[in-house]
């Protein structure tokens, strides 16, 4: 008897010898039972990567089969399967499984072929499994679709960012956008919550499994008590199509840690580039000012609708704090609507002093929420730099005079910025100075983008206009930065 059919209850292993050890068996059968057990153990060891549970599969299509009983624990999404078809072994991955009266499984085979026939005689499931966290940590490293998930990077500054009623569109922590529409008079602050200031600003090592130093915090300064139909407030990340497309049309799982002094029902939403398809999930904050882990299972997104798989928006992830009825709908499935919440969504802005914080966010392919993988700080910083980076304080040489009052500073960017035109944010022009090679200086009257090139923006020119007309065309100058300039190509 295959060892997958052995029972975990000792007394149940009483099948007719040599497949079992029944009470009162004949002495002559003892050797046969022992030898059969030894043979099955050795057979299992010879193929230790796969376990044959002894359940007979029935082929229902070139890539599908069914089994009696509920086998979902073993045939979960992403698990590996070995199929024996007429004595030939084929290998594939579970891409869909479900249980009603029996368990139905769909495979994607490695060779791209669809080899199942009615000669399918056995299936074995790969070990270890994603169920119950048996996968080695190295398997799920670098799976997170979200950038800056532990809120370590604040290239624009750590805040506070004071945001007031009306249209809100403000990037804060790298890649994290606060967007909303509130009535006049409402206001909030967004800032970096740091462990160094207070250990309770982040979850503990015992909770997350690693030391975190930062969270993103939102606090209400002036309340917004009446939620109009078109009102909303969300913390959002827009995932580029290049990064999303490898996960497109596959189920996803998300986890995050949240903390708020305002309990209630909140929502998280997933939307496409055209904002014509959305999937909403609810979560509750039940304990005041306590870090809580929230997990979500997101069905595979549809192929219909407007999706971008290149340099545009591939997927939008929204953590919803306020949502009027215009943006409300059902939860759990993808619908052809632009919704972000249900009618149960709480109004986080209801009272001044309300605080919401989050960190340790992970969005991954599959149906299992795996632990948050450790973040390489400098690699994460480089990933985020594609969407925005600062030119820090310093002296930059080899700027070229291109007209009597203009100097062009050409920057070579590695990694390149995302394709498209970058916008610049700078301080007062008094913070920048044109310097000649002999030490003379000229004041700056204006700053602007001069040009860019390459696949993505691998180089960029910033023009600095001088007060008066002292610039020699073709001359070489330095530009002194007393304040940084931020280059932005966010989605």
List how many beta strands DSSP finds: 27
Which homologous superfamily in CATH is the superfamily of the largest domain?
A: Galactose-binding domain-like
Largest sheet: 11 strands, antiparallel
Intertermini distance = 59 Å
Which labels suit this protein?
single chain, 491 residues, mainly beta, Thrombin, subunit H, Jelly Rolls, eleven-stranded antiparallel sheet, seven-stranded antiparallel sheet
Task: Walk me through the topology.
Blueprint: H1 27-46, E1 50-52, E2 58-59, E3 64-68, E4 80-85, E5 88-99, E6 102-109, E7 120-126, E8 161-171, E9 177-194, H2 205-208, E10 214-222, E11 232-240, H3 241-244, E12 252-260, E13 264-271, E14 278-285, E15 292-298, E16 313-323, E17 334-335, E18 355-365, H4 377-385, E19 388-391, E20 394-403, E21 406-417, E22 423-425, E23 432-435, E24 441-453, E25 457-466, E26 476-481, E27 485-488
Task: Walk me through this protein's architecture.
The protein folds into four domains: 44 residues, no CATH class; 85 residues, Thrombin, subunit H; 223 residues, Galactose-binding domain-like (Jelly Rolls); 103 residues, Elongation Factor Tu (Ef-tu), domain 3. It is 8% helix and 43% strand. It has four helices and 27 strands. The radius of gyration is 30 Å and the shape is elongated. The mean pLDDT is 92.
């Amino acid at each position: 008897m295959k060892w997958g059919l052995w029972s975990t209850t000792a007394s149940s292993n009483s099948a007719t010898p040599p497949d079992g050890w029944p009470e009162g068996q004949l002495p002559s059968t003892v050797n046969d039972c022992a030898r059969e057990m030894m043979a099955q153990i050795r057979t299992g060891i010879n193929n230790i990567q796969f376990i044959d549970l002894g359940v007979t599969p029935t082929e229902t299509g070139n890539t599908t089969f069914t089994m009696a009983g509920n086998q979902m624990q073993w045939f979960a999404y992403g698990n590996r399967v070995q199929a024996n078809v007429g004595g030939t072994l084929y290998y594939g991955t579970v891409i869909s499984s479900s249980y009603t009266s029996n368990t139905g499984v769909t495979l994607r085979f490695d060779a791209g072929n669809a080899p199942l026939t009615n000669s399918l005689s056995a299936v074995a499931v790969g070990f270890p499994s994603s169920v119950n966290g048996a996968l080695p940590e190295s398997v799920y490293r670098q799976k997170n679709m979200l950038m800056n998930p532990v809120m370590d990077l604040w290239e624009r500054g750590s805040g506070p960012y004071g945001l007031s009623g009306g249209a809100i569109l403000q990037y804060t922590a790298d890649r994290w956008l606060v967007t909303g529409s509130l009535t006049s008079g409402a206001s909030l602050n967004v800032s970096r919550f740091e462990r160094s200031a207070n250990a309770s600003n982040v979850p503990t090592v015992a909770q997350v499994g690693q030391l975190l130093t930062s969270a993103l915090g939102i606090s209400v300064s002036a309340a917004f008590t009446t939620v109009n139909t078109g009102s909303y407030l969300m913390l959002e990340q827009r995932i580029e199509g290049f990064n999303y497309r490898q996960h497109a049309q596959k189920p996803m799982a998300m986890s995050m840690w949240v903390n708020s002094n305002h309990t209630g029902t909140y929502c998280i939403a997933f939307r496409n580039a055209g904002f014509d398809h959305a999937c909403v999930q609810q979560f509750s904050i039940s304990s005041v000012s306590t870090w809580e882990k929230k997990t979500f299972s997101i069905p595979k997104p549809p192929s219909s609708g407007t999706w971008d798989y290149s340099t545009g928006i591939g997927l939008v992830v929204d953590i919803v704090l306020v949502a009027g009825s215009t943006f409300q709908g059902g939860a759990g499935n993808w619908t052809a609507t632009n919704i972000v919440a249900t009618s149960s969504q709480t109004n986080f802005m209801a009272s001044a002093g309300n605080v919401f914080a989050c960190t340790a966010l992970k969005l991954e392919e599959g149906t299992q929420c795996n632990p948050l993988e450790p973040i390489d700080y400098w690699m994460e910083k480089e990933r985020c730099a594609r969407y925005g980076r600062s030119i820090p304080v310093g002296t930059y040489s080899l700027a070229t005079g291109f007209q009597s009052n203009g100097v062009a500073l050409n920057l070579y960017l590695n990694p390149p910025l995302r394709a498209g035109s970058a916008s610049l944010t700078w301080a007062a022009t008094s913070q920048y100075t044109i310097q000649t090679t002999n030490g003379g200086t000229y004041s700056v009257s204006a700053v602007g983008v001069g040009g860019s090139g390459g696949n993505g923006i691998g180089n960029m020119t910033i023009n600095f206009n001088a007060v008066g007309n002292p610039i020699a065309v073709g001359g070489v100058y330095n530009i002194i930065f007393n304040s940084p300039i931020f280059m932005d190509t966010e989605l």
